[in-house]
Design a protein that fits this description.
Elements lengths: L8 H14 L7 H13 L9 E2 L3 H11 L10 E5 L6 H7 L4 H4 L16 E6 L6
Parallel strand pairs: 1-3
Antiparallel strand pairs: 2-3
Helix pairs in contact: 2-3
């Protein structure tokens, strides 16, 4: 017999935070927090109905601690983007060194065309040799 479990967005975020905390992560420093704050300050913001970040600030900060924010040349390797008309999963998956779904856990099933919604704010990464 199947059970339907209803969760609020905050309950889902708490579950995600706990799962992330169980994974092996690098310690977070003030520099990592500052990089996350700068990225969020300079990046796109949710402004309309249904628009949202596809990650939490804590998740972004931990990602920066784990993989860095700039490459050896000093160029950023992590970016935020607000999904607009004509944006597709493949466009960003091809740009990213990491799986978009793993980088954006609050937006489930990003690979589905109907779920790559206008107004979602996603993060993606590039490596030192990406365009």
């Amino acid at each position: 017999m199947k059970k339907v479990i209803r969760l609020t967005e905050s309950q889902l975020e708490n579950i995600i935070r706990k799962v992330i905390a169980e994974q092996e992560n690098y310690p977070i420093s003030d520099g990592h927090r500052k990089a996350a704050d700068e990225l969020l300050r300079k990046g796109p913001k949710p402004t309309g109905s249904g628009e949202k970040y596809c990650f939490t600030k804590d998740f972004l900060t931990q990602g920066i601690a784990n993989s860095g924010y700039v490459n050896v040349s000093g160029h950023p390797t992590r970016f935020l983007h607000k999904i607009g008309e004509g944006d597709t999963f493949n466009k960003f998956q091809n740009k990213s060194d990491s799986d978009l779904q793993k980088l954006n856990p609050l937006c489930k099933d990003l690979k589905g065309e109907g779920n790559f919604r206008k107004g979602y704010i996603i993060q993606y990464t590039t490596g030192p040799f990406s365009n």
